[in-house]
């Protein structure tokens, strides 16, 4: 029996910050700078850190699997990314950054039985994730698992979030939403402000054109807010995303999933309490 969708969504909410802190931590910027990447914004390191498991792929391939980013944004930051540092070196820097960040943020929890147990349970869930048709999940799952519990926890969180993300893209494709429309329709239900979504690099003209296409389908009103049909479509996408993300938690079982949720609470609080993560993101956590 599949896990309750609410539980599946809750596990994502708990694990997402544990993964995403990499893209905001000063330790990650320091490691990226040592490789030769700019650190004036997070994007010069975000793209190599997240894409490195795929190998030396071209910007077009990165745009394909990252989906909601404007191809121009990907080209801007990823055109020569592997000339700056090879994927294997980026992966090593990523691991060092996570190690340093977690040691600072989790402090006394490093080496604790609770963190070790959480890492074991998350590892079990991640290994149960079916990665066929899920390129980012498959690429991360194929990497060697770290020995240290805190690094295994981060790696498991990464496999699981990319597994969910790959499934979300399948749901968007099935719903007939192209990359710009995916963002516009999400903004239309209040997932985040238009300004937050602008970080993906779409021009005002492209944003307006996506609105027009969605309005023609009866999904948006003239003011850019979602119609009942638009809200229903987004709700179905989220429901389908939860359903496609349920496999690892079904394999872990209700008891194991509940235990992991309990264990993650303190780590989640520590990461959120660091102030590193933005209060609003394009993921819509807590909004939809």
Question: How would you summarize this macromolecular structure in one to three sentences?
Answer:
With 288 residues, this protein is an all-alpha fold. The chain has one domain (5-172, 238-273). It has helices at 5-20, 26-35, 43-51, 59-66, 71-78, 81-84, 87-106, 113-127, 135-141, 149-174, 179-188, 194-197, 204-216, 228-244, 247-273.
Element order: H for helix, E for strand: HHHHHHHHHHHHHHH
The residue fraction in helices comes out at: 55-70%
The residue-averaged pLDDT reads 95
Gross geometry: globular
Fraction of residues in β-strands:
under 5%
Q: Enumerate how many helices there are, as a single number.
A: 15
Count of individual beta strands: 0
Q: Uncertain regions: pLDDT < 50 for 5+ in a row?
A: none
- Report the span from N to C terminus: 25 Å
* Gyration radius, rounded: 19 Å
Q: Biggest sheet: strands, sense, closure?
A: none
Provide the fold topology:
Blueprint: H1 5-20, H2 26-35, H3 43-51, H4 59-66, H5 71-78, H6 81-84, H7 87-106, H8 113-127, H9 135-141, H10 149-174, H11 179-188, H12 194-197, H13 204-216, H14 228-244, H15 247-273
Outline the structure in words.
The chain is an all-alpha fold and 288 residues long. The protein has one domain (5-172, 238-273). 67% of the residues lie in helices and 0% in strands. It has 15 helices and no strands. It has helices at 5-20, 26-35, 43-51, 59-66, 71-78, 81-84, 87-106, 113-127, 135-141, 149-174, 179-188, 194-197, 204-216, 228-244, 247-273. The radius of gyration is 19 Å and the shape is globular.
């Amino acid at each position: 029996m599949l896990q309750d969708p609410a539980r599946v969504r809750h596990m994502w909410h708990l694990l997402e910050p544990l993964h995403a802190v990499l893209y905001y931590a000063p330790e990650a910027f320091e490691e990226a700078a040592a490789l030769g990447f700019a650190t004036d914004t997070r994007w010069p390191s975000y793209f190599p850190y997240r894409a490195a498991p795929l190998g030396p792929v071209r910007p077009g391939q990165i745009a394909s699997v990252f989906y909601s980013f404007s191809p121009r944004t990907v080209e801007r930051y990823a055109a020569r990314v592997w000339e700056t540092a090879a994927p294997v070196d980026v992966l090593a820097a990523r691991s060092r950054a996570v190690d340093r960040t977690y040691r600072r943020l989790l402090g006394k929890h490093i080496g604790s039985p609770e963190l070790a147990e959480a890492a074991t349970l998350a590892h079990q869930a991640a290994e149960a994730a079916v990665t066929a048709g899920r390129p980012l999940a498959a690429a991360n799952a194929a990497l060697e698992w770290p020995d240290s519990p805190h690094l295994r926890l981060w790696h498991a969180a990464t496999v699981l979030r990319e597994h969910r993300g790959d499934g979300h893209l399948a749901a968007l494709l099935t719903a007939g939403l192209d990359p710009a429309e995916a963002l516009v329709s999400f903004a239309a239900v209040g997932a985040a402000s238009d300004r937050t979504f602008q970080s993906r690099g779409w021009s005002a003209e492209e944003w307006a054109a996506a609105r027009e296409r969605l309005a023609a389908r009866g999904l948006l009103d003239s003011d850019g807010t979602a119609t009942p049909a638009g809200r229903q479509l987004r709700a179905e996408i989220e429901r389908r995303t939860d359903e496609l993300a349920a496999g690892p938690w079904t394999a872990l079982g209700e008891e194991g999933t509940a235990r992991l949720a309990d264990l993650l609470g303190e780590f989640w609080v520590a990461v959120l309490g660091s102030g590193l993560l933005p209060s609003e993101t394009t993921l819509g956590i807590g909004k939809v």
